[in-house]
Amino acid sequence: MSTPGRVPISNLAVETRRHTTGSRNIPLGLLLGGLLIGCGVLPSEDSGAITTGLTGLVTRGPITPVCFEGTPCDAPFAGQFEVLRGSRLVATFRSDASGHFLVHLAPGRYTVVPGRDAPIMMPWAQRQEVEVKAEGLTRVVLQFDTGIR
Length: 149
Known about the structure:
Blueprint: E1 13-18, E2 22-27, H1 28-38, E3 53-61, E4 75-76, E5 79-85, E6 88-95, E7 100-104, E8 108-114, E9 128-132, E10 137-145
Parallel strand pairs: 3-10
Antiparallel strand pairs: 1-2, 3-4, 3-7, 5-6, 5-8, 8-9
């Protein structure tokens, strides 16, 4: 039995109030899913505990028009990335300032696409094909072109 203004726990719903139309129930899963997507967090393809995925380093280069021996010509960078399976977005991830990242994905073939604000030449055109192995984390180095010549 429920009281006005309360929602039974068995319904797993959150009650919201509108000023003119009364109250309305929104399923908790829908509400939380909307919040996660709104924050830029997308779950990976499978809702179960995924123990496989990609980990590694993201670099961009060249970072100078002339490269010298003993001086790095590439550099790690922080950025947002999308992971596609076919044309479907299945996950997003962000590399840190050192270029390191981790994203959990089910085994299979994927395309990693840098965000449009990545500090590289035409990021949307620099897609990287990757394959997640059946067990554990697959280590990769994703290298992108800055366009500096």
